Batch of 3 targets.
Target 1
Amino acid sequence: MRTKIAMLAAGALVLALAACGNGSGENSDGSDFPAGKQVTIVVPYSAGGASDLTARAYAQELEKELDTSVVVTNVTGSSGAIGLEQVRSSKADGYTIAYMPVESAMLKALGFTDLSTDDFTFLGRVMTIPAAVTVRADSPWDSYEDFADYAREHPGEIQVGNSGTGSIWHVAAASIEQEEDVEFTHVPFDGAAPAVAALVGGNIQAVTVSPSEVQSSVESGELKVLTVLGDERSSILPDVPTASELGVDLTVQGWGGFAVPKDTPDEVVAVLQDASGSAMNSDSVVDFLAERGYEHAYLSGPDMDAAAAEDLARFSELIPRLGIVNS
């Protein structure tokens, strides 16, 4: 009789453990995610920048959607490669999320890492920041067509500043070269701000940085923007046409999104994608982006997977041709 009772008790224990999954309230397939556990978002850049602040705005809303703690941590180095590598090598359980900048599609081609967007599954894209072709207000070019024609007739004469060799703004100017069959002299700076200062001072002839980075100088009458290379017109420069409006098939823009390691269970990815959609489209996130001149440009996880794959292929072809690799 005592043996029979022991067997019944053991059976009940097995059933109880099965009902509890891994013992933390989450089933082995992740169907109970997040089960009250903390979620960490890794930003591969320093605190206080656009990537960090965007991630923190998203984290506040994601926390509400998941009903669990969401924290942001900054892991810097190697143009973002170190932070992204930390997420790629983390346990693929949904509890570690990467902030994914456009550079995540560029790092492999630049030689910083073998990591690429193919190693992740996107939860969504939250924003874009287009390149803006900007010149001095007193320059002889009153339109993008004038600018491109002059560059075509005077190879290498126009000095175009960017935020650093291999940056998205460097790639923007190089993409114009490719599209228009022109040649610039690329001048790298340690960030967009000094590049804009050099343009205002007359030391270079153009920059291809973001609208928000030239906005104050445009408003003061020192600079003018000839075109933006975004999907749509910039919300802070609504009178400036996009390149596509001018008949130029060219889009170059920074973007920011969030992703998890590739092998994360489908059930967990579905929960995170649904919660991320609500968080990224929340009033607080939309307002935050508008205040800083970033474009709210939500894409679902699957749509962003496809968009990132396109960018990865394009940068993998363009960057080696430019010869801008990490030695």
Target 2
Amino acid sequence: MTFQLTVGEATITQVTELARWPFPPWELFPDATGEQAARAAAEFGPGYVEERTGALVLAIHSYLVRIGGTTLVVDAGNGNHKDRPNLLPHHRFDTDFLNRFAGTGTAVEDVDVVVSTHLHPDHCGWNTRLEGDRWRPTFPGARYVFGRAELDSLQALAATEHPEGVAADLVRMYDDSVRPVLQNGRWEIADDGHLLAEHGDTKVVLRAAPGHTGGHLVAEIRSREGGAVISGDVVHHPIQLLYPELSQAGDADPALARRTRDAVLERCARDGLLLLPAHFPADHPFTLIRDGGRLRLLPVTGHHA
């Protein structure tokens, strides 16, 4: 599952770690109902909602951005061999992600910048890989970019005594996917408006998009010809276009997450920006249009690599 598109001077390639990642609706969105899932199935089709079980289907995507001699990875996926006993959907992956990545024609050694929209397991796990009994940066020549608020929050959590449950798994994530980069890699801190790369009239910029986490960011690729938003966990599944009030179970601040989601999706519709989601089980970008009182999601085909 992959596609490639061009925005100004940038070429963007989707690299899929996991193509189908199903969840019961209420596990993903605690307030979701079976009726809502059924409507989503009718609206979006069986690729998004399993016909037999009614489960909502997600995926895990990374995005490879090449611009003016700079190669970036936005959201490095879940990673293999990571212990997440309290977050079982993330536990002990064993995928061929690195082979798929190599299939793009870019070696991990060629990556210049790695950035996570936020520091959750499925967005920073491939920051590192297991070499022998040690975690090493997967992209050895890259500069890793961490959102300031994200890293501060995670380090504060890692400093607590005896974390339990999900918090314990987030500390494990820090120890295997973030700390090794801080100790053995190149890294820097980013705030809202941080410029990742530019060439000609095209820029790749990080924008604050809080709610799912306090320091969540999106990556915007903008040029005179158009733009795209790599949206991370601002939106998880198209059911949230039908029911904007649905908050994902991991949202730190559900009300703020909704305001951010509404704002980002509205900006995509208003400015004609392509939406590049982290978790939609699709091999194409999306546009958004306003249709009466709601935003409608439209697939954009013809961009396959």
Target 3
Amino acid sequence: MKNPSTYLAPTYLNDVVTYEEPLYFQDMIDIEWRGQIQSTTGGRKFKLYYCGTYDEAIKLLVDQDDFPVVIYAEDCQTKERILLFDYAKHGYDALFCDEYEEEILKQREGELQPLHLGGETEFEILVYAYYGIDYDDEMEEFLNEEGEIELISGEIISPEDLKRNGFDFFGMDVIDTKGNRQRIVEFELA
């Protein structure tokens, strides 16, 4: 199955997603991109590691103190690690609004913890992004004096990269070994 969305994957996820399971791509909305995580060896079962807090009341991962959420998947067989989402790097706010001290970002690696849900530690993973900003219509607003798209970090990116990486919402679902699906991430990013 090919990408069922009219949007392309965020560039950092492009090589680690598949669209082969039709069940996972039902009921998409028109501004949504969705993909199933797959390791470079084709693995689809992962352990999740995160820096943040799992809030039992809302059943979602949220920021922990001064640390913006970061989430990795680790292939259960090969131990390949894939960055799924970093609040400090991915999405509209990270591109144009929010800056974090490098020291804080480095400290998060020492704070990583495994995700346990209902006694389960291995999951299939679906990630999705919403693109509610029409960059084609609003491109001029993002150009600097030289006609370039300059991020808050000073990096210059192409209009194509802006359209793929400037998503304004990011979510993630996990599917446990019993087939139970649960959303664990919902971030508004603009």
